[in-house]
Amino acid sequence: MLDQLLIGAILITTLVLFVIDKWRYDIVAMGALLAAAILGLVPTAEVFSGFGSSAVITVAAVLVISHALWRSGVVDALAGLVKKVGDKGWIQMIVLTSLTTFVSAFISNTGAMAIMIPVALQLARARGGNASRVLMPMAFGSLLGGTITMIGTPPNIIIAEIRQAHGLDAFGIFDFTPVGLAVAIAGLLFMWIAGRWLVPAKDGRNTSSAPYDVSAYLTELYIPAQNAFVGTTLYELETKVKENFAVVALKRGNKQITAPPRYQRFRAEDVLIVEADADTLQQILDLTDFQLNAEEELDERFLVSDEITVIEGIVGHDSRLIGRSAADLRLRHRFGVNVLAVARQGQRLKPALANVRFKPGDVLLLQGDNDVLGDVFRRFGCFPLAQRSLRIGSERQLARPLLIFAGAIALSALGLLSVPVAFTLAAGAMVMSNVMPLRELYETVEWPIVVLLAATIPLGAALEATGAATTIANAALWLGQGSAPWVALSLLLVATLLLSNIINNAAAAVLMAPIGISMAETLGVSMDPFLMAVAVGAALPFLLPIGHQSNLLVMGPGGYSFNDYWRFGLPLSIVVVIIAVPLILLVWPLAG
């Protein structure tokens, strides 16, 4: 009994820390694992057994393959077809959500959204509509797509391994399809019909365009002859002005230098294009004796050149920017990148950005060299919103990753190789065939997810070994005492769905699967329908933006608030439960 109380206390503390979100979830999970090991709840030989789990290896391999397909332009090519569907908003919504759902069945949800969000924004701008109408349905569609195959989402991979660990064959790659596909279709139909009333169309700043007007903060400053700053560098000016500002361009006669480097020296009669608010601008004028030129109306033509561009990007859920400011990161000093604006939930923050600490879902407007910006996005875990051209455009090169991926699916579906072996082999083939450079191999793996899985798998085993899972299962069955087994299945599905909204969905699957198995054993029925209920519930966190990275990615561009998610996500969750429970029992009978 003491062991059950201890593992319960550890897991409750872990859940609370996940919700507080002060420390990253992989750190919290590893701390919980070490606490369980110190208390003797996890045997010494099994503490780090999760790192050797086939589920962890499969998740890592799928992430590599997803990035390779993303990098090769395969998904871009599909996204390009969307532009041909016409300019009717409802048709675009059907096509965008359907394509996102389909793609998410085979690559990571985040990778699919990173490609499809720019497409949705571009289409919304072209027809003058609200991107907010389609972005949330796309995010939810990416979650629905993950339920269709085993590789669509990490919870499915985990559930497959848990089944094998209990003496049965692991679920196959398409064993999830009958239930997952039906749930996905039902979810799409609901979104197409009810989305018009339940998905908000944001007023104020039109979310189909940039959520800020940079030109409103651009000013010309003229450097007169004999000025004290003639001959000094931009760096010296930046160090003397206390507030944050950006020199986005320098005009010298008929020549324009966009995003001038920090070592650029000023000359007499240079004209600086400065982005700053009124207070900062006044400070610059007082300090430098530059002359304000307010005669010409400025616009964003000063922000770009052949080498310099401006790109919007979203701060990802695991971005290295989170909790840090532009000043902390010294983006201008290290990379020559100007942070021109930051928008949060569709509203522009104050233009003095030096001390603004970034949050997941923030939309940034960055100015810099094209290649450097791409490196900055990759380095700091951000997703560009600018529409990108195909990375590798030839048909032969597009075919290669598709053939490798199809081969892995065929080998695993036919039972010639196990899923972990087939997909690890495919990931290696992607690298060996130069679909993805070797240098990007380890950068593509979301290591926090890997560590989270490796840490929670032994915790899930401890939950079962100590009998805590059985105790929780008995309590749940007591609530439905005298009811049919489908009631217990429904309770498990709803509980998992709710839990996946506040903690990582992979962790939710690991923690809820032992409870589901104990419920099945107590009822004397097959574990399969209960495992499937956990898989469906863990994959579909619709209620909160923090429930999944797909939800978070659309929060900034869509201008959504927290309340917008549950207003649309709650009825969609109810539809999922109503459809999933009878389907699970039909495809996976209680009798086994």
UniProtKB/TrEMBL annotation:
Subcellular location: Membrane
Domain annotation RCK C-terminal: ranges: 205-290, 297-383
The entry's keywords: Membrane, Repeat, Transmembrane, Transmembrane helix, Transport
Any single GO BP term: potassium ion transport
Spans traversing the lipid bilayer: 5-21, 27-44, 51-70, 90-123, 135-159, 179-199, 402-429, 449-479, 491-517, 529-547, 568-591
Protein origin, superkingdom: Bacteria
Main localization category: membrane
Signal peptide coordinates: none
Official protein name in the record: SLC13 family permease
GO molecular function list: monoatomic cation transmembrane transporter activity
UniProt GO cellular component terms: plasma membrane
Membrane topology label: Multi-pass membrane protein
PANTHER family for the chain: BASIC AMINO ACID ANTIPORTER YFCC-RELATED
